[in-house]
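Quick one - inputs below.
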Amino acid sequence: MSIDHLIGYLTTGLSYLLGAANWMQDFMLAYVIGLLFIYLLLYAAAVFPFRRRMQLHDLNVEAVRDDTLYPPIALILPAYNEQNVIAECVKTAMTLDYPSLQIIVVCDGPKDDTFGVLVRAFSLEPIDLRIRTDIATKPVVQVMGNPLYPQLTVILKENGGKADALNVGLNAARAPLVCCCDADTLIEPDALRRLARPFREDPTTVAAAGALSLTNGSTFAKGRAVQIRAPENWLARIQTVEYVRAFYFGRMGFEVLGAMLLISGAFGLFSRHAVAAAGGYNHATQGEDMELVVRLHRQSRETGRKYRMAYVPDAVAWTEAPEDLKSLKSQRMRWQRGLCETLWLHRGMMVSSRAGAPGWIGYPYFLFYECLSPAIELLGYVTLGIFILAGYANWHIWLTMLLFAISASLLSTFAALYEQQKLRPLVSNNMDLIRIMASVISELLVFRPLCLVWRFRAIGQFISKKKVSWGALQRKGFDVTAAK
Amino acid sequence: MDWSSSSNTDDSAKLLLFAFGFLAMVAMFIVATFIARANTARALRHRAQVQAQWRPIFMGLISLHLLPSKLPSVPQRDALEFARFWIENLNRIDGDGRQKLLALGTQLGLAAKLRRHLRSVHLGHRVLALCVAGRLEDVGALPAIRKALYSSNPTVSFTAAMALVRIEGIRCKEAVLDRACEGDWGAPYIAQILRELQLENTTKEMHRMLKAHGPKQGGNLLQAWAQVDYSASAQYARDILANPRNEGWLLCGSLRVLRSPSDATLVRGYLAHQQWSVRVQAVNAMARVGLRGDIESLTPMMEEENWWLQERVLDAVKGHPQFNAKAAQQLTRQMQDRVRQKT
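Output:
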């Protein structure tokens, strides 16, 4: 082959590459404009209905015989290696202000002394409780209780994963509503009453999502936050911003549009009947919480059943965010894998004629702006690199893209912070609020790129079907002080 | 897209304008967030102050029947928070203590202070004002209460209904009961209205309402009636079920009421009704009242085409304490296979 031929091939190849890069550039511009448009749509859709709804927040004037209006709830706490926090969690759960509450702790074959801690803390003895077999699970080893705590049941089972533990809880539940919650989640005393409200008001409700706040940096007593501070740890501060944006912006908007595909596994209330009819939680995915919600949507739509999924922003539970990079990486990669698995399992939704808002709004958003966003963003950087190397970089268009992307992120974050402040204080003082706002910068510059790389790797793990465990989260527990 | 033309200056101007606009919006949100935080914190402090001021007075009044010699007044700015705290305490106590709190509310002129909020755009303020007007039997508030009765918000309309019943008693029964049949109040709320009305002849009123609003609200009304007077509502249901040619919604509503094992024979007859919705309610009723043999006889209904029927049969079978666990699991697998095929 002569030099001329080689140069010819290289030139042709370069022109094709530049053509592809041009196409990618146009796609990226449309992508970020689309993101900004979606965020504006979510905010516009949600802001007035939710503000109107929250005007009745904390108001329960006709409370005579109110207790009879609340359906019984079974609170399911799956526990695995939680010996440091489990007793405190169960004690707090027992102080929840709810008329009829059954607490089921499911110890999923823990390697530490989680089960022993519970047995000693509550003087539990073996009891004879018939557990249904609606949903197939790993065998139950022992069921414990104490007549002094009739609402508490502790089940020890063979290890089978969180989904399996939740299914055992569903089988053991005696209430029409089940609240699936992480063992380290601290539920506010009146949160369940608020979360049960949609089920009272509308019998077609199958699920209700609460809001999550972070315990990092705050002090708690008797199940309530006595002092809410911005976390000292920079990672936790950034995650505070993330959680506010997710719960006071994203969830609100999608709920109003009827496209809420995610109810956090740390705090969600479901109709037991609807979940059992859907087959319970799915073992095959690490994102069992989202997968269940998507399956509920799909099944209800396929069978033509009228249903509702609600979001209750004033029903609040507290959870701990990881403060070290290793735990955070493990968590984010797990979430990304769970998201990929769920969207893959239910890929038929996007093309189904019956899918409605969940399939035509929720699914595409989660696919392009959550699941594939690491790949799309990284491709964007590669495209920019190609243009720079070729000397064709059009800085106007790339600046425009950057501006739109930053606009979308910052506007959604500050709008969420504003809406959240109208409802309840995020932190106890202005300095902490400034520190949290300042974290938005480090989120954009440091946190997002880090998460981008991890999530991209998780997509690779999903595609290669690599089996990965949950990973361990370093827990500090709550800072619990005696009330003064 | 080609941005490399000589309009670069225009493009830069547009970009700068957009950047400026976006920064201005972010700045607005930041300022608004601090203001919102301050307002929320101030509102919480205000609430705590009002409660701290009045809690000892309420406790003294309820426990020791004592009032301070110089009772503080309730300024207009505290009226809503005071009303909220006052209603919370009213709802917690009964008998003599409640009467004393009501008398205190009258003495402080609470109803007059809140009258301006009866037509407020703020739902929470409106509900508080309606509730206080009802508790204190504020006749001057009647026009606003009657208007609120027809509000599209069910909390506002229900609070207005309770207020109207407290003020006018049985005289408002037609208006309130007709409003109850609009469909936005659940059965427990209708039941509460029925209890509050203290009707002389609930059966007669329920017959009237079912005749007038049956097709839309029959099920809800029967459920509400069952919460107030189970034996009368169950007898009504049995009379309806004695004639299988009654309308479907009436049969469904009647089946939903039955809870006694003695009704199993009556329910059994409806498992083969030609309308699927009636068969569904019959299965639900059989799950409540049937014995093991009755539940076993439901299992052939798993072959029905109708999704709802299959689900209800499965629920009835799995939920029965006497039923065989293995058979229940087999039925569950059968059901899940069908779900998988369908989805």
